[in-house]
Amino acid sequence: MVYVAALLVVAGVALYVAAPLVGARRAKSAAPSQGLDFDRAIQQRSLAVQALTELEFDREMNKLSGEDYRALRAPLEARALGAMAEIERLRAERHADADAAREAQRVLPPIQPVERRLRRLVYCPQCGDRVRAEASFCTECGASLNPVKSLAMQAD
What's the pTM value of the predicted model, to 2 decimals? Predict the structure, then answer.
């Protein structure tokens, strides 16, 4: 019975420790690949440049012969240049997408102003009395019911 309990504790600890690893794999597979290619190319370039720097340091310290240095440097340079070419290609794609989005915004027709019709007042703006729609003046107070004339008179 003690062995079963110990086995369950060990299995629980193992699952607890392995959970972040499994979760990271799921998160990577669920993440969009748009920025992953660019990040991967940046990482590859950084690793290749770092390896070239260390290789140069080893040559300066006389840890490598000239032949070994040339043999090791060629693949690292090719790897760094390939990563740099990939970065430039991805940047060009980003700029092309941004230019296409800007161009799509330029294609939109200009906004046309909305025409508003002035409608006849049904209530007098001065006294609030109800008037007929075809009337030009209020029968109660004599105010003009034409909205343009009313605004002009109020401004004076």
Answer: 0.44
pLDDT for res 30: 44
- Amino acid 89 reads R
| Residue type at position 61 | M
Report domain extents, the chain.
35-104, 120-156
Find the length of the chain.
156
In degrees, rounded to 5, the angle at the alpha carbon of residue 72 between the alpha carbons of residues 70 and 74 is 65
- Alpha-carbon span 15 to 10, nearest angstrom: 9
For residue 27, the model assigns a pLDDT of: 52
How far from 68 is each of 54, 72, 73, CA to CA, in Å?
A: 14, 6, 8
- What φ, ψ does residue 130 adopt, rounded to 5°? -75, 135
pLDDT band at residue 86, thresholds of 50, 70 and 90? very high
Please report the pLDDT score of residue 23 as a whole number: 64
